[in-house]
Amino acid sequence: MFKVLPKQTSSVLMRDGIRLDADVYRPDAEGEFPVLLMRQPYGRAIASTVVYAHPTWYAARGYIVVIQDVRGRGTSEGEFQLFAREIEDGEDSVNWAAKLPGSKGEVGMYGFSYQGMTQLYAAATKPKALKTICPAMIGYDLYTDWAYEGGAFCLEGNLSWAIQLATETARLRKDEKAYHALRAAYRNLPLYDRNPTLPEVLQNFAPDSFYHDWLAHSQPDEYWEKLSPKTYFQNVDLPMFHIGGWFDTYLRGTMHLYKDMAARSQYRQQLLVGPWAHLPWGRKVGAVDFGIDAASPVDEMQVRWFDQFLKGVDTGLLEEPPVCLFEMGSDRWRKFESFPDAIHKTYYLSSQGLSSIREDSGTIKSIQNPKSKIQNPKSKIQNLKSKIQNSSDILVHDPWRPVPSLGGHAAMSAGSFERSHIDCRSDVLTYTSEVLEEDLYLVGDIIVEVWCSADKPSYDLCAVLSQVYSDGRVYNVTQGYLRCDGSNFTKRKIQLQTTCVRIARGNSFRLSLSAACFPAYALNPGNGSSLGMEAEVITLMVSCEGETRSQILLPLNLANET
Asked: What average pLDDT does the structure give for the chain?
């Protein structure tokens, strides 16, 4: 452990002459040290201490720590344009940090969210001094991993972030009127404006916000390709420590990047996923306490990681399994040699046609042993006829009282919450399994296949998997969302957020289906637009009959644990 000198402010000119400022934390000792660089847009004094230890903690362990304001933020010069200059600025900043006095010339990067993104953009140019990165909670493909999910606009998250960044822009421009209006809007999101997807406060006080572009590009086009790190990352290869949370809105991006790198990298790709939301990373997530083991181990793990790859210290890291997942329900960490390959077991939805009215009308039936092989799919369907009732369910979505979002990964208050009051709504279809005789272990992607039709050319489907306790409490585990175009009767596939959970024997699991999850996602007015104001009632028919029986595929975890 080292004593740490008082922080110093240092500046560097980018290739176009724009000055970026940074705080530098140094060990109070002679010699050369590796550099840890974080590039962020929220004011460098914060230094992401909402989830990480303060930079002095890292400096005391033998690192020069640099916290830099990106272009146009904090005291750095230039105009802030979301992600637009992070590739060039990232490369210049890494090369500058490597040459700081006392630096040994090797740089690692860390940070989450925007700070995680700046790592990817910097790595895209493959600067020689950058030896490793630790990206946490990022978007790899910005359309599918960040702005939209299943083709639906992630309203609450995008809107709150846009207002936050616009408020800081107004402060830096000394626009007092805009600052106070935007600050008030952030504390009370304007979700009930005449057009909640495009509130007047953003139109009036932040006309240059990225938010308007994100709304305008509702399909994965060239705009998103140019903006996404994935476009520039195909030839990048270096050791990476990937960090995510089961209730983080950007877990799709974390898993997307990890799986890409794990499949092609010659270096160690380490994955840690806790039970956390985007922030903070602690034991209490939503309304559930996951125990002391859920407290973040990230800082200690990162120091060990950087010791291994920047200092050349044999920490024993390379002898340990590279995948560490927090298993909710058991409230313990499990380690794997790779992300587990799950065996998907199929469960079929059954109904008496009253799944929106009675909890006992909609059920989930299993007819397949996950270890057995079904040779004749048609005979499997025939066997169902004697075991499962044939019926369909009707769901009516009223835009005046949409199903509210509660927890999960897309709502601002993310995590697991008691949701039996939502499942009791008449615009929510619920299907519940029998009481489990054995613990059910799930890890991976849950897939819901819904055979349905609608009376409008576009509609949305929200699927939530929950654990139902013996006393009637219902807590969400994971969810997914899909915007559907076309009213014809067809199969819709919804991929739920990746998860790792134990559903205990004596409890049940439940699938809840609805046509909205507001304000986490923008309402579908019936024509697929996120900007539509004349929303109409939408009626859906969900099939639980014959060969068009809706189903859920659960990823059973049969892997050995360590």
From this structure: 94
Q: Give the amino acid at 210.
A: F
Q: Which residues of 343-381 are buried (b: 16+ CB within 10 A; e: fewer)?
A: eebbbbbbbebebbeebebbbbbeeeeeeeeeeeeeeee
**pLDDT at residue 519 is higher than 90:** yes
Which band of pLDDT confidence, cut at 50, 70 and 90, is reported for residue 532? low
Measured between alpha carbons, how far is 345 from 142 in angstroms, rounded to an integer? 31
The gap between the terminal CA atoms of the chain, to the nearest Å, is 31
Q: Please indicate, yes or no, whether the overall pTM of this predicted structure exceeds 0.90.
A: yes
Kind and range of the H or E element at 298? Answer: helix 298-310
Chosen CATH of 343-556 out of 2.60.120.260, 3.30.43.10, 2.60.40.10, 3.40.630.30: 2.60.120.260
Nearest to 50 by CA among 253, 208, 277: 277
**Model confidence pLDDT, tens digit, residues 274-298:** 999 999 999 999 999 999 999 999 9
Asked if residue 384 has pLDDT above 50, the reply is: no
pLDDT band at 359 (very low <50, low <70, confident <90, very high): confident
Contact at 8 Å (CB) between 278 and 113? yes
CATH of the structural domain 8-144+225-336, one choice from 2.60.40.10, 3.30.230.10, 3.40.50.1820, 2.170.120.30: 3.40.50.1820
CA distance 86 to 226: 12
**Which tokens go with 178?**
């805009």
The candidate with the shortest Cα–Cα distance to 116, out of 207, 226, 37, is 37
Domain ranges of the chain: 8-144+225-336, 152-217, 343-556
Give the H or E element holding residue 264: helix 251-264
Count of helices and strands (H, E) across the chain: 13, 27
The per-residue pLDDT for 375 is 41
Find how far residue 202's CA is from the centre of its chain.
Answer: 25
| Phi, then psi, of 455 in degrees rounded to 5 | -95, 10
Give residue-wise pLDDT tens across range 24-42.
999 999 999 999 999 999 9
Contact between 428 and 356 (Cβ < 8 Å): yes
